[in-house]
């Protein structure tokens, strides 16, 4: 009955209570959203690559190398010459080495040249291999394999033609050499989903008529190109697997000391850690700010309770006259605060899920983070419980004041 | 478990004894917090009592301490000295919590106006004191049926119990307050100017209902007013100056 009356009292003040609940809900949604994004980003980053022991690229920062080679974020400042790659690939420690060549694009998606071995060697989420949802791998020079997101976003199917653009975000198309979609990979939740994969030779082929960033004269006929030797002169990076994990560091040192060219070999796991060390600061700041927003909303609620205390003295006197103890009045106010916070928490969680459902494709498109929509985990439930608990604590201040007022007022409050 | 039979419990044990429904002896009280603008009002009441089933009208000017006296009798504040006994129990001997419980069990309270929680239904308002008084709840028997009986007896519309109290007219609200004071037949009904918000005709009808129901329940009635015209219905009319001395300490 007390619960029913408390709810009735809240509904009777629907407007102010509604605003307070909304403020709490928005702050809770923000907090949970930031948490979701944070853990989602972490998981999706960590799951992006496995089974690769070393990533090799031109010398730069290890985080930078990781970002452009695996996440297709940013660009390589330098290439790795084909000779260097050959040297590395023929090292006795090396089990396999897959070259990748980046730099062209198709619409908003990046194009990656590689060898067919990529499909066998690339692993994600603890050892899962790429699979084809439709079609098959690279066979012909002008075959392309597209990721699930590319297919979904552009409505492509196997057999469709696809034209690669020169560079990133450019208006120059390699339209004289169209590709044909040979396969679509199954969704992985990794940047592969957002990549157009062609063979390394194809990357060479479409640049035959290009010299130093510009197109030269008339287009060479496709037949002539097919007859050419299309060995690349340089690649962007290489994924390397070693025969024995014990040899990783030997190989890494060898590559980093490679005399012909400044190279960098990184362990993906270590680089990921470094990345998180950088992102971690921002991450903590973000969590801190959103926690402050929740506190602000709760403070607003406390102020609201304080401001209504005076006009509710009459009501408190009625409760007292009916036999309620001052402690009951205190409990009543705390209960109301907890109900508001609970309503805010539930509404906030609902807002979060609605926001997730609506914003998920956007986040995925913008950051390549596929946020999972799943029932709230223990941590989130604890967060919600903590919000309700904090509301109870915050409401103690006005509740204690009501307690003292109801003791001092006696039974007959003049109105 | 079957519901406890209300009938045997109804036999009101306290009424069998001739002790007074209310007795004040050598009571002294002063509001705390003097100097905070309220000016430390105090009250002394050497002797005042109310017999079982008796109805008394307490007259006094505004600010003479009528409401203060009622707060004392209801045990919302505790006397500094003396005996405030309701149905033979000295309230000063009870802890604050026990006094609250005692009030819920034994005393029905009616205010001048704004008696009800406007957001709660009439039924919830009437049942509210029972929430804090298990014995009175048992005496009331089946709550919903008792609410309906009281509403009908007090001339409230049949759909009144479900209506939010705030929607009723002032006169109807006062009658709901009577129903709330009477449910579970408490031995003492205390009313602080319950008719002052009503016009003369409504006052008369209201008092008729109040007396009828209090008599039915066998409750004593102590009503406070500044209007001597109401006196004729009561067994006794008392002026506050005659029973209590006000003290104002600057
Ligand atoms: N809660 C309180 N705290 C301190 N002083 C109070 C309190 N309630 C009443 N008083 C003081 O006690 C005095 C008597 O007030 P009280 O309400 O008992 O008079 P009353 O006879 O009921 O007057 P009215 O007819 O206007 O209701 C006043 O001077 C008032 O200031
Ligand atoms: Mg008064």
From TrEMBL, chain A:
<keyword id="KW-1003">Cell membrane</keyword>
<dbReference type="Pfam" id="PF02687">
    <property type="entry name" value="FtsX"/>
</dbReference>
<keyword id="KW-0472">Membrane</keyword>
<dbReference type="InterPro" id="IPR025857">
    <property type="entry name" value="MacB_PCD"/>
</dbReference>
<feature type="transmembrane region" description="Helical">
    <location>
        <begin position="381"/>
        <end position="403"/>
    </location>
</feature>
<dbReference type="Pfam" id="PF12704">
    <property type="entry name" value="MacB_PCD"/>
</dbReference>
<keyword id="KW-1133">Transmembrane helix</keyword>
<keyword id="KW-0812">Transmembrane</keyword>
<dbReference type="InterPro" id="IPR051125">
    <property type="entry name" value="ABC-4/HrtB_transporter"/>
</dbReference>
<feature type="domain" description="ABC3 transporter permease C-terminal">
    <location>
        <begin position="289"/>
        <end position="406"/>
    </location>
</feature>
<feature type="transmembrane region" description="Helical">
    <location>
        <begin position="285"/>
        <end position="306"/>
    </location>
</feature>
<protein>
    <submittedName>
        <fullName>Putative ABC transport system permease protein</fullName>
    </submittedName>
</protein>
<dbReference type="GO" id="GO:0005886">
    <property type="term" value="C:plasma membrane"/>
</dbReference>
<dbReference type="InterPro" id="IPR003838">
    <property type="entry name" value="ABC3_permease_C"/>
</dbReference>
<feature type="transmembrane region" description="Helical">
    <location>
        <begin position="262"/>
        <end position="279"/>
    </location>
</feature>
<feature type="domain" description="MacB-like periplasmic core">
    <location>
        <begin position="19"/>
        <end position="205"/>
    </location>
</feature>
<feature type="transmembrane region" description="Helical">
    <location>
        <begin position="327"/>
        <end position="354"/>
    </location>
</feature>
<feature type="transmembrane region" description="Helical">
    <location>
        <begin position="12"/>
        <end position="34"/>
    </location>
</feature>
Automatic annotation (TrEMBL), chain B:
<dbReference type="GO" id="GO:0005886">
    <property type="term" value="C:plasma membrane"/>
</dbReference>
<dbReference type="InterPro" id="IPR027417">
    <property type="entry name" value="P-loop_NTPase"/>
</dbReference>
<dbReference type="Pfam" id="PF00005">
    <property type="entry name" value="ABC_tran"/>
</dbReference>
<keyword id="KW-0547">Nucleotide-binding</keyword>
<keyword id="KW-0067">ATP-binding</keyword>
<dbReference type="GO" id="GO:0022857">
    <property type="term" value="F:transmembrane transporter activity"/>
</dbReference>
<dbReference type="InterPro" id="IPR003439">
    <property type="entry name" value="ABC_transporter-like_ATP-bd"/>
</dbReference>
<feature type="domain" description="ABC transporter">
    <location>
        <begin position="22"/>
        <end position="250"/>
    </location>
</feature>
<dbReference type="InterPro" id="IPR003593">
    <property type="entry name" value="AAA+_ATPase"/>
</dbReference>
<dbReference type="GO" id="GO:0016887">
    <property type="term" value="F:ATP hydrolysis activity"/>
</dbReference>
<dbReference type="GO" id="GO:0005524">
    <property type="term" value="F:ATP binding"/>
</dbReference>
<protein>
    <submittedName>
        <fullName>Putative ABC transport system ATP-binding protein</fullName>
    </submittedName>
</protein>
<dbReference type="InterPro" id="IPR017871">
    <property type="entry name" value="ABC_transporter-like_CS"/>
</dbReference>
<dbReference type="InterPro" id="IPR015854">
    <property type="entry name" value="ABC_transpr_LolD-like"/>
</dbReference>
């Amino acid at each position: 009955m007390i619960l029913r009356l408390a709810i009735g009292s809240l509904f009777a003040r629907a407007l102010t209570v509604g605003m307070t609940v909304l403020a709490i809900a928005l702050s809770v949604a923000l907090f949970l959203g930031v948490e979701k994004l944070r853990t989602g980003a972490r998981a999706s980053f960590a799951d992006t690559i496995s089974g690769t022991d070393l990533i090799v690229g031109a010398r730069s920062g290890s985080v930078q190398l990781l970002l452009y080679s695996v996440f297709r974020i940013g660009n390589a400042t330098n290439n790795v010459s084909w000779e260097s790659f050959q040297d590395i690939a023929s090292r006795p420690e090396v089990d396999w080495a897959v070259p990748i060549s980046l730099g062209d694009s198709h619409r908003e998606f990046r194009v990656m040249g590689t060898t067919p071995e990529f499909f066998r060697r690339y692993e994600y989420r603890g050892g899962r291999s790429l699979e084809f949802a439709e079609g098959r791998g690279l066979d012909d020079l002008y075959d392309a394999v597209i990721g699930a997101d590319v297919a979904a976003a552009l409505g492509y199917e196997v057999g469709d033609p696809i034209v690669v653009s020169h560079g990133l975000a450019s208006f120059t198309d390699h339209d004289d050499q169209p590709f044909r979609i040979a396969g679509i990979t199954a969704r992985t939740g990794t940047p592969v989903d957002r990549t157009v994969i062609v063979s390394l030779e194809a990357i060479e082929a479409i640049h035959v008529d290009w010299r130093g960033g510009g197109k030269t004269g008339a287009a060479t006929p496709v037949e002539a190109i097919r007859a050419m030797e299309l060995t690349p002169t340089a690649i962007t990076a290489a994924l390397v697997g070693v025969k024995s994990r014990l040899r990783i560091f030997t190989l890494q040192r060898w590559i980093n000391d490679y005399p012909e060219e400044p190279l960098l070999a990184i362990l993906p796991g270590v680089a990921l850690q470094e990345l998180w060390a950088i992102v971690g600061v921002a991450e903590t700041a973000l969590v801190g700010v959103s926690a402050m927003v929740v506190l602000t909303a709760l403070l607003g609620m406390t102020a609201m309770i304080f401001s209504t205390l005076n006009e509710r003295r009459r009501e408190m006197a009625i409760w007292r006259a009916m036999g309620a103890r001052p402690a009951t009045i205190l409990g009543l106010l705390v209960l109301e605060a907890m109900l508001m916070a609970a309503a805010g928490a539930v509404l906030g969680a609902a807002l979060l899920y609605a926001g997730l459902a609506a914003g998920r494709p956007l986040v995925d498109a913008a950051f390549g983070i596929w946020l999972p929509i799943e029932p709230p985990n223990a941590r989130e439930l604890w967060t919600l419980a903590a919000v309700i608990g904090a509301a109870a604590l915050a409401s103690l201040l006005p509740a204690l004041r009501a307690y003292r007022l109801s003791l001092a007022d006696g039974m007959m409050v003049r109105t | 478990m079957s519901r406890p039979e209300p009938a045997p419990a109804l036999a009101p044990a306290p009424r069998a004894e001739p002790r007074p429904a209310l007795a004040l002896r050598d009571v002294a009280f002063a509001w705390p917090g003097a100097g905070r603008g309220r000016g430390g009002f105090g009250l002394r009441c050497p002797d005042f009592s109310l017999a079982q089933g008796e109805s008394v009208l307490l007259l006094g000017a505004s600010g003479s301490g009528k409401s203060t006296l009622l707060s004392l009798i209801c045990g919302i504040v505790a006397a500094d000295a003396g005996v405030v006994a309701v149905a033979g129990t000295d309230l000063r001997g009870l802890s604050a919590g026990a006094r609250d419980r005692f009030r819920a069990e034994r005393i029905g309270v009616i205010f001048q106006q704004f008696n009800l929680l406007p957001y709660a239904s009439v039924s919830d308002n009437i049942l509210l004191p029972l929430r804090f008084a298990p014995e009175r709840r048992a005496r009331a028997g089946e709550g919903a049926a008792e609410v309906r009986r009281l509403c009908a007896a007090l001339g409230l519309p049949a759909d009144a119990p479900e209506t939010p109290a705030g929607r009723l007219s002032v006169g109807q609200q006062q009658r709901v307050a009577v129903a709330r004071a009477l449910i579970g037949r408490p031995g003492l009904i205390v009313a602080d100017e319950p008719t002052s918000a009503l016009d003369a005709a409504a006052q008369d009808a209201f008092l008729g209902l109040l007396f009828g129901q209090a008599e039915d329940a066998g409750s004593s009635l102590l009503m406070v007013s500044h209007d001597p015209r109401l006196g004729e219905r009561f067994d006794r009319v008392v002026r506050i100056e005659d029973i209590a001395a006000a003290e104002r300490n600057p």
